[in-house]
Automatic annotation (TrEMBL), chain A:
Residue list for modification N6-lipoyllysine: 103
GO CC aspect terms: glycine cleavage complex; mitochondrion
Pfam family of the protein (one): GCV_H
Organism per entry: Glarea lozoyensis (strain ATCC 20868 / MF5171)
Superkingdom to which the source organism belongs: Eukaryota
UniProt-recorded name of the protein: Glycine cleavage system H protein
Family per record: Belongs to the GcvH family.
Gene3D superfamilies: 2.40.50.100
Record's function text: The H protein shuttles the methylamine group of glycine from the P protein to the T protein.
A molecular function GO annotation: lipoic acid binding
Comment on bound cofactor: Binds 1 lipoyl cofactor covalently.
From TrEMBL, chain B:
Taxonomic source organism: Glarea lozoyensis (strain ATCC 20868 / MF5171)
BPL/LPL catalytic domain residues: 66-255
Protein name (record): Putative lipoate-protein ligase A
Cellular component GO terms held in the UniProt record: mitochondrion
Entries under PANTHER family matching the protein: LIPOATE-PROTEIN LIGASE, LIPOYLTRANSFERASE 1, MITOCHONDRIAL
GO molecular function: lipoyltransferase activity
One Pfam family named in its UniProt record: LplA-B_cat
Length: 173, 388
């Protein structure tokens, strides 16, 4: 995803700001169930520099992957989403699919090492869903894949940014 | 002897030229891509006209070149129809026209996004590969515009679709001369574009790209945007030299290296050619589509059609029929007559069909013309392997 923001940056950051307001409900609050202990807080949603997000389940065995609000808006209108076949074992940084927008095929990369167990087939049917709610992990949302995570994947998370750091990163980019 | 990593590109070029002279028709020389050149700026011009090879060399450069390098690659293909990564070959081209064409155009699915374009010997393709963090959709289209200006093609400019257009005396609407498409990966990104210089086939392109099946298909994926096109009337080599010069202005004065057939012996490139020219890639990578005839489909989903005549409809996923409905005059949707067809055509590879009369359960006189019409629209006759 890294890429896309470039030529559309001014419009993109405007849109991204607007979008954060609109889709607040889709972003899990860190002050919900998870804020009970400091150790749990380590497993909040994490982001990559390539604008993907990953959210680990409480038991650290599964996770959901998607592209960030920032990326979704920078991409422009997504006209096709190519999803991986499952199950697929990948390393952090491997391509797990692609989106097409503005004549560009952009790879979606896995933020962590994991095994992809299911994909969001709604995106095949209605690609614009990824523009509307890229960080929404509900059945109507724009998440990309559900994955199984082993130890390596959990430790990959340490190298990623939390929401705050990612926000700062996109503002600087 | 394989060129060592330390050689700079001008040395490579001399090496290459002397090798080509030594055995031009015999055994292949060792490719310079046996090891990836490490230079920060690299310029290549292909002497091959195979779209499968040229796109595979390009993909090799995208995936294997040093992360910080910027690369220019110029190539010209024999007559071919190049569809975008997520397009439908039955919607984008007229297979009957392709089959009967003396030009024997090849059908190619590229890895970048966007719509369908025509290539032939009067069209030069430019490709710039750079770090993703430096990617910009217009930067290198503007570079090509500067090259065109230096060749006295004054009216050329980049439009809002990132295409290059120019005004002609005959028309107030600008004509398209160059289309762009992009492939973005984590670290490396590619922008490639066509440039119509002197194609002798402009008047026939519409015939190859106008699909008779289009109105009977609702497809997921990407549609092409039609534009009026024209030639720039510049020689291929003049254009190549001008683009190389503008690229050097931006990235440094490096020598041009010629590549071609021998690069096809590099295992990764050879594998790329094999993949790009396989029916699995060309047809089975087609996003899901709904075909309905003679009644055009209303949506992407298979649904009973309200018609007074016989109708056949199917959904194809990865080029294979997964669902179908036959509507009979005598049958209501969902009854036994409707389901009978399912068993017979499900699992059919659309691109492998040689006669729909053998596939459809033709038991009525009226279905014979339907099978014939489907043959005209859907049979593919391109055998890419011949064109490599």
């Amino acid at each position: 995803m890294a890429s896309i923001a470039r030529t559309l940056r001014p419009a993109a950051s405007r849109l991204a700001v607007a979008a954060r307001g609109n889709t607040a409900s889709s972003i899990r609050s860190p002050f919900g169930v998870r804020a009970f202990s400091a150790t749990r807080a380590a497993y909040v949603k994490k982001y990559t520099k390539d604008h993907e997000w990953v959210e680990l389940s409480d038991d650290k065995k599964t996770a959901t992957i998607g592209i960030s609000e920032y990326a979704a808006h920078a991409l422009g209108d997504v006209v096709y989403v190519e999803l991986p076949t499952t199950p697929m074992e990948v390393k952090a940084g491997d391509s797990i699919g692609a989106v097409e927008s503005v004549k560009s095929a952009s790879d979606i990369n896995s933020p962590i090492s994991c095994t992809i167990t299911s994909v969001n087939s709604l995106l095949e049917e209605k690609p614009a869903t990824i523009n509307k709610g890229p960080e929404d992990d509900s059945s109507a949302g724009g998440w990309v894949a559900k994955v199984e995570v082993a130890e390596e994947g959990v430790s990959d998370l340490d190298g990623l940014m939390d929401g705050e750091a990612y926000k700062k990163f996109t503002e600087e980019e | 002897m394989s060129p060592s990593r330390g050689l700079n590109s001008s040395v490579l070029r001399i090496l290459r030229l002397s090798k080509v002279k030594l055995n031009s028709n015999q055994s292949r020389t060792i490719s310079i891509f046996t090891e990836i050149p490490k230079a920060n700026t690299q310029i290549y011009v292909s002497r091959s006209h195979s779209p499968y090879l040229n796109l595979s060399i390009e993909h090799h450069l995208l995936t294997k070149s040093p992360a910080e390098s910027t690369i220019l690659f110029l190539y010209t293909n024999k007559p071919s129809i190049i569809i975008g990564r997520n397009q439908n070959p039955w919607v984008e081209c007229n297979h009957a026209a392709i089959r009967s064409s003396p030009l024997q155009p090849l059908l190619v699915r590229r890895r970048s996004g966007g719509g369908t374009v025509w290539h032939d010997e009067g069209n030069v393709n430019y490709s710039v590969i750079c770090p993703t963090e430096k990617f910009d959709r217009n930067k290198h289209a503007e570079m090509v515009v500067r090259a065109l200006h230096s060749l006295d093609v004054q009216g050329a400019k980049v439009n809002e679709r990132h295409d290059i257009v120019m005004n002609t005396p005959e028309s107030t609407v600008p004509f398209k001369i160059s289309g762009s498409a992009y492939k973005l990966t984590r670290l490396r990104s590619l922008h490639h574009g066509t440039c119509l210089l002197s194609s002798p086939n402009l008047k026939d392109i519409g015939k190859y790209l106008g699909s008779p099946a289009k109105k009977f298909i609702k497809a997921r994926g990407v549609d092409s945007v039609r534009s009026k096109i024209t030639n720039v009337h510049v020689g291929n080599e003049d254009f190549e030299n001008a683009v190389v010069e503008k690229f050097r202005d931006m990235y440094g004065n490096v020598e041009t290296t010629f590549v071609g057939e021998e690069e096809g012996t590099v295992p990764a490139i050879e594998k790329g050619v094999e993949e790009l020219s396989s029916p699995d890639w060309i047809y089975r990578q087609t996003p899901q589509f709904h075909f309905s005839y003679p009644s055009a489909p209303a949506s992407e989903e298979l649904e009973p059609v309200q018609t007074r005549s016989w109708n056949i409809a199917f959904i194809a996923r990865n080029g294979v029929i997964t669902k179908s409905i036959e509507h009979n005059i005598s049958s209501a949707p969902g009854d036994s007559n409707s389901s009978s067809v399912e068993n017979s055509i499900i699992g059919t590879n659309v691109y492998e069909v040689t006669d729909w009369a053998h596939i459809l359960p033709v038991h009525e006189q009226q279905e014979i013309p339907v099978a014939k019409a489907m043959n005209d629209m859907l049979l593919v006759g391109v055998t890419p392997a011949q064109g490599i």
